[in-house]
Automatic annotation (TrEMBL):
Domain PsbP C-terminal residues, every copy: 109-258
Pfam families referenced in this protein's UniProt entry, alphabetically: PsbP
UniProt-listed PANTHER family: PSBP-LIKE PROTEIN 1, CHLOROPLASTIC, PTHR31407
Name of the molecule in the record: PsbP C-terminal domain-containing protein
Species name: Brassica napus (Rape)
Gene3D superfamilies associated with the record: Mog1/PsbP, alpha/beta/alpha sandwich
Record lineage: Eukaryota, Viridiplantae, Streptophyta, Embryophyta, Tracheophyta
InterPro entries, A to Z: Mog1/PsbP_a/b/a-sand, PsbP_C
Family matches, as SUPFAM superfamilies: Mog1p/PsbP-like (SSF55724)
Amino acid sequence: MSTDPHNHYHIYKKTKHKTINQSPLFLRMSSMASLKLSPSSPISIPKSSGIIGRRGVSFLVRAEQSPTSSSDLQDKCQRRRVVVTLGVVAPWISLLSKAPASFAAESKKGFMTVSDNKDAYAFVYPFGWQEVVIEGQDKVYKDVIEPLESVSVNLIPTSKQTIKDFGPPKEIAETLVKKVLAPPNQKTTLIDAAEQEVDGKTYYQFEFTAQARNYTRHALGVITVFNGKFYTLTTGANERRWEKMKDRLHTVVDSFKITV
């Protein structure tokens, strides 16, 4: 297997119609295959969710000479402001009420927010990354120049009620990194793993490296369980760019939340 980072992007496929409820831990997850991406791979950019156009607003101003008091003029001006405001705001209210199940919007400076209403999660990614479609992944965004800089979200069914039902953070992260998040021919090292509670929901965050023959990917991940789904978000960069990217990648991981 070639290890050129410009030709490979390793992820794991979504397991359908199965539950993670058997021993040893993640027995079924370990069978997920790594997906090879090359210039001939079927990657496509989804269609734009749409462009909001501006509606033209025309005005007819009629000049008349009449003995109108200053108070009457003020009243007329205020009424005009209300009419114009309503005419401009109303179309936006209509468009917002028809928000799609998943969409990206501007977030904090330098980031975009992804909100998936169907699967009830949200996260941010660095501005400039492009969305790509990869079979088995729910969402993938990546840098078009640096192939190892990316973020992906994967969902698989589970019968567990919380991430704690799988075990402690380090045990789960170690298994996930070795059997799912990196190819078997790469040397993996778990750097850290910790538990986090946010709004009554438990998340496990972890950091690891995956060393190939001619590059090392430094990555972060976060996992949780909600409503019968096991959520995994991973993001990372080439080790040579870690110092430059680590703050942004930590922002991505910290932003991942269940939204209900």
